[in-house]
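May I ask you to comment on the folded chain given beneath this request?
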Amino acid sequence: SIFDCDEYVTYSNKVLEVAPGVRTVIVDSSLQCVKGGEFKTALNTDIFLTVWDKVISDGHFLLHDWTVKVDPDAVFFPGRLRTVLEAYSESVNGTYLNNCPMGMHGPLEVFSRN
């Protein structure tokens, strides 16, 4: 889970205690969206951008080589990702690990610091 990462943050539209001593950080969004498109998925671009604005403004990502976006319903093993990341280096323009041939989709997205 994300709690095995070097640092983690959970976001919501209100403060919630998700585990003892772990509270969400507030983002300015209802976190609601419609479903649609070819695959009837959540059309959540606006939510995504609001959360990333908060990630960037908080600046914690600058303390780490990689930042991982993990959906709450995803099964995530940070130790396995650390092994995969050994094969990658950061480019001048940054590195994005694409886990879906259709672009930025899916429960797990990995970005380098740049």
Residues 45-58 form the longest helix (14 residues). The chain is about 20% helix and 20% strand.
